[in-house]
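hey can u check if this looks right to u? its 131 residues, i copy pasted from the old doc so theres a chance i mangled smth
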Amino acid sequence: MTVVPSNPDTRPQNRRRSKRVLKRVPVVVRLRDAGKQSLAENAEAIIVNDHGALILLSAPVKVNQIIRVENPTIREELLCRVTTVGASFMGKTQVGIEFIVPTPGFWQAPPKPKQAESKSAEKVETTGAKK
């Protein structure tokens, strides 16, 4: 019998449901503090995927706490669960979150309007004609 050493990346607890992407995305986090007061914080996601993110947050949170995260670029807000509370640095804590409902595309920038694209194409054509 041959024993194959297990690769840490193939163990079930280390498998990812979706690929992590290093991307800074401004977000607005809404939550209730220990005194049941609502608060909102402008924060930043630093690693994102289709199932959640790692965000930098100054407000204290606990694992399994439900929070709302808004991507103001696309004006969409999702319910999320805090999965990890990590290290703190300069007043910000690394907080892992997962979407209650996986939402591919939540971190993407909205597509540019077609009208803006056609105007920029016209400028290129005009500029080229003047040479």
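The chain has one domain: 14-130.
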